[in-house]
What we know:
Oligomer: single chain
Order of helices and strands: EEE
Shape: elongated
Distance between the termini: 11 Å
Strand order of the largest sheet: 1-2-3
Structural class: mainly beta
Largest sheet: 3 strands, antiparallel
Radius of gyration: 13 Å
Low-confidence stretches: none
Strand content: over 45%
Number of strands: 3
Number of helices: 0
Amino acid sequence: MQAVAPVPEVDGHVHKVEGLALRGMEDGVVHLLAVVDDDDPGTPSAELDLRVVLG
């Protein structure tokens, strides 16, 4: 691991990442889909689009 970055805040807090999927990779940039959840059964999970620049 070369770098660590915080998971973005959504609605003022950081959710638990429950899954990651690779959307694609081009020109040294990896596009990921993160499924996040805050353990509230009444609220559906959210999706975050993440971009990782390989260095």
